[in-house]
Amino acid sequence: MAREVRKAVLLAAGRGKRLGALTERMPKPMLEVAGKPLLAHIVDALAVNGIREIAIVAGHLATYIEEWGATWSRAHPETCLAILHQAELNGTAGAMLLARDFIADEDAFIFGWGDILMDVENYARFVHAARTESYDLMLSVNRVRDPWRGGAVYVDAGMRVERLVEKPAQGTSTTHWNNAGVFASTTLLFEYIAKLQPSPRGELELPEAMAMMIEDGCEVRAIDVRGFWSDVGTPEDLESARKLFRPPHLK
Hints:
Radius of gyration: 17 Å
Structural class: alpha/beta
Strand order of the largest sheet: 5-4-1-6-11-8-12
Number of strands: 13
Low-confidence stretches: none
Strand content: 25-35%
Number of helices: 7
Largest sheet: 7 strands, mixed
Order of helices and strands: EEEHEHEHEEHEEEEHHEEH
Distance between the termini: 35 Å
Mean pLDDT: 96
Helix content: 25-40%
């Protein structure tokens, strides 16, 4: 099944509270690893793989992302980069709703968290799968000892997703697959976002919409991430990433 996938949405509005003082004056996606911001590693990888229009949803300290985006756009005129503003930080699904018009006419699109870090080769594999495989929703997964910090992803032998459990209690998961933060979807996703109610913390949670798609029997598939991956969630994660992550030109 061939799909034209040419647009991506990156959610980069959050505060990054676990990073403490590091994100008081700088949005988490702008923290640097290997000489450039986390967000730049993602945007560069998508652009190299033929994604020609990218929308970034910014919120916390958005000016820094705007300034970086303007500089990046001047250096990459072949790719259209748009910055959208999430004035009310009402969750990842709330952020995604801001991009609905941006991808309204697309057969499928890529989206993801704007603050993860992984080996660039994974983007080529994921974009290829997004263009050639059948799915309503596709998620990247990485293997961990215990996915309690992220989202536990349960798959069958064919990597079809059977269940998604966000932030499971530590030690309770029977899967080693973690939600790695890069996705592809059809616009069916927005029908499920429309069904969401605010979570206990008052936010519209995108993983909940994904879980609803799985429960309803939608075709949800997983693509494994290989090599380095980090959500750079804590100061220790950031220090480790700066020591261990090596983009292609540094290997």
